[in-house]
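Incident review: delayed structure delivery

Summary: a single-chain prediction request sat in the queue longer than the usual turnaround. Root cause was a stuck worker, restarted by the on-call engineer. No data loss occurred. The affected request and its eventual output are reproduced below so the record is complete for anyone auditing the incident later.

Affected input:
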Amino acid sequence: MDRAVEAFIRIALIAVLVAWCFEIVRPFLVPFLWAVIITIGLYPGYLRLTHQLQGRRVLAAVIMTLLSFLLLLVPAILLSASLVGEIHHIINLLMHESFKIPPLPEAVTQWPLIGDDLDRIWTDGTENIKSLLTELQPEISVAVHWTLGVAGGAGIGLIHIIIAILIAGFLLANAEAGQRASELFARRIASERGLEFATLAGATIRSVTRGILGVALIQSLLAGLGWLAIGVPAAGLWALVALLLCIVQIGLLPITIAMLVYAFFHLGTLAFIAFLVWSLFVYSLEHILKPILLGRGVDVPMAVVFVGAIGGFLSAGIIGLFVGAVILVLGYKLFLVWLHDHFDRSAKPASSSTESDPAS
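Output delivered after worker restart:
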């Protein structure tokens, strides 16, 4: 009884200590997870850069951090400036009453149930935009609050990414110590197979980073810069929508068709042909890069990585892309280990009995 009480007290103290530590680091958990993902994704490039710099690890980490900031912030600032400028332009139009709503097509007014209401609201809007805004104020308030919530979430996410890049730079500068610590932890958890699972987890994160998020980011940035070049309204917002569509594997096709229709009516022939070629090039990157990068370096079927990434994204957001893929790949490998071990144990008695039988 004394030993049981003593063991209970020790376990309780350890549990309280772990819970307290978790509560302290909880605000930094998401940036730290992103930092680990960014570090694993950048590590091969960091090794090559370190070799070229003759072993200067800190300088290589600083250069990789600055490059990450440039790749993230420069396109984000350009597209955000475009979005803010379009919003400011719309507000000016509404304030000076220079914004006119075209008449509603007659075919729409004939729609059952909603045609008359649409015609009334649309007519009020064409005659007096202020009265229409006053009538639709509750719906506009809900839309504004939702938009502000989305914008706030995106802003917090951007701050997390900035902090994560800084942490990733520190982790890259101390990559060897971090690798030894992760190997020790993996061996402590799963003995000799722990190192195999740790290597597999790193390869999975790199695969998802390049094959899903990397391709989506490249496509959305290139597409957004193309839309910005031809003067598409709110190009930054459309680039964000394109990024989400690429991440959930819907792809750029719906939004590309819409942009081509816009370009057809607003650009000259030569400019439209150039934009068409650019759009086809950006759209084809998915079919060129993803088969090459997704699953590269991971000794599991590509479908397992893909299902884990998409399922994780649907259940836990962008961070779930990596967590879902890693968990499903590790679960798949554990299942194979269990299956092969069971098969080997069942096969050994049969082989030994066959060897001992002289007739065989």
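Verification: The chain has two domains: 29-173, 193-338.
Action items: add queue-age alerting; document worker restart procedure.
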